[in-house]
Fold each of these.
Amino acid sequence: MATYISHSPEETHALGETWGREARPGLVIALSGDLGAGKTQLTKGIARGLGMNDRVHSPTFALVNEYPQGRLPLFHVDLYRLETPDQILAAGLEEYFHPAGVSVIEWAERWFNEISDFQAQAAKGTHLRRVSIETINENERRITYEDFGD
């Protein structure tokens, strides 16, 4: 497990950009953190690292925003309005857990809650990065992440 301390939204964006440049097809980045912690800011950086110039918006009401223009397609999923894995399945979102490009899933704890959930998905061939963003103060964030799968 690795920890990164971001001192500004720009640093959070830069970390995401690094991850986007390194991303391979099939990567699922599972984000957890309170409202305003920086999940969408990190996603904007990932999009930039994938070579996208589009404006990235949180898909809270749409559930999914797709950005096909970069080196790999980006699928930005927001589970905030869904509370259980059954609701996620009923919404038809399971395909984003095995993407042709990169999926970034906000509020991922609503689908993946335990380490065993990540291990089970990794056993199915999914490369997962579990990310927790914690607000330290107005500008600083503790970003902890761990990879599962190859």
Note: The CA atoms of residues 72 and 101 lie 5 Å apart.
Amino acid sequence: MDETWVLLRGLIREAGHWEALPALLRERRPGARVMTPDLPGNGRHCDLRSPDTIAGMVESLRAELAEQGIAPPWHVMALSLGGMVAVEWLTRYPDELASVTVINSSAAGFNSFWQRVRPAAYLPILRFALLRHDALARETLVLKLTSNMTGSEERARLARRWAGYAKERPVSPGNALRQLRAGLRFKAPRHLPASVPLLLVNGAGDRMVNPICSVTLAAAWHCALRVHPHAGHDLPIDAPRWLVDTLNDWLPPRSP
């Protein structure tokens, strides 16, 4: 059976921010198709209006996949805000999903506001908002907050590349606000369909979202949890090979 992966990034992020991870996933899952769609308002869809609900983001993604003729079931791996989209997708359309992997995410009703956005992150987030016209400074700040395991030279290279994305495909303030509002209001169900394998992954060094959020969700949903001892919020940047190997070990091997 064909294996298709759908990778979803987070708040005001786009496909390019995955960096090496899609190629590593193809390497570890030979023959798999890896899709990196952008949420409306981000990346290739920066000219679209972002939905202000997580459910609206799910419907937009389903419509895009249908237009491309990509049939389910899909494996979904998603980070932060993308993880909320994946959970909503699982809740509404479990028959469309082969597995779900949620990285460093959270949900109202399970986690407090100060767990979902750690107090130490408030000032960097405010500074980020004020640096609207300096893309390089903004992306440097993002990486300083979300990455624990990149060296200074690598971080500088990433910041320059990501600043290029921000200039070529800017996210409007209105779209950023709608995405933030959707994430803050997202309430996940107490129970999820047991028919779809679900893996939660977090970085113990996450300075944006308290790692206790993933622990709480895993306990409530009775699903597997894997923890990287040092990675930050952007675990796919900090430990991409560890993430893909962890995912590959958790899933059954591909059928020939």
Note: The chain has one domain: 4-250.
